[in-house]
Amino acid sequence: MFVFGGHGQSNHLMCNGARAYTCWNGVTCDATLAAKRISEAVFEFIASLPDFDPTILALLQDEAGQRQISRNQRLREIDRHLERLAREEARLVEAIKRGDSLDSLVAALRELHAERGSLEHERNRSQEELPPPVELPSSDRIRRDVCFALQDLALESMEFADCMRQMIPKIIVYPVRLCDGGQPVLRAKFEINLASYLPAAHQLPSLIGQLRCERTVDLFDMPQRAAYRKQVIALRDQGLTEQEVARELGLTVTATQRAAALHRMMIELGLTDPYVPLVEPPQNDTRLRRHRHKRYRPRPDDQEDAA
Fold first, then answer.
1. How many CB atoms within 10 Å of residue 86?
2. How many other CB atoms are found less than 10 A from the CB of residue 13?
């Protein structure tokens, strides 16, 4: 499970599989940085949430209305069934009074009582869940509700963590590294679901789909050659020399050369992202040796794990 904030005295996160030697890597990430990056992704999605199209709202109104009609129909079916059971119960009671086949009649009466109890439970639940006349919230209302829930909460607080877990039930964390080498780092993939802030009456499939999105964020700070790669290439394309690019960006000439070299390698490999997933231990890495430990027991799904 992902935790916003530090683990006890440590401020780094490691998956449980690494601790149990079922993962081949023990890469960690800074917990505060991870919480900050994931929180920023949530706030960006909230800010970009568009207003619902009037046509979509009309469809949602129809969908909600159909759900209410279906519930009313089911309630009528349950009432008819309960009436039939009441008549059957009265018949069985009269048969018992007459002394007819007592054992079989009592068994039938028990089955009838069980069926009636099940139907009454379903009826009560359906009545409680029956939605009021549908007034769908606007996206602006949803934005306000979510922001209100998060306001004044410290990033490291358990209250903030609880709010985040409500919107992000699961986070998949997996190792990546630059295509030209370097130490493995962690990247997170997760789904943001703002539908959890909707009242039960508004939990409609069409509306829920509008309030979900998938995001991938880096749980690390890029080195200079990756962080400035696009800017270096853009300035070089404008005709600036290495020295001019370095002065413009406040870098050393060596740093701009490394950024350009990384870009050339990406082109050679046909990549648009300088980071590539690590699905097995790098053969040339002398630090990632957990998979060589005698306690290591790989799992079929150890290529990605929930932190």
1. 12
2. 23
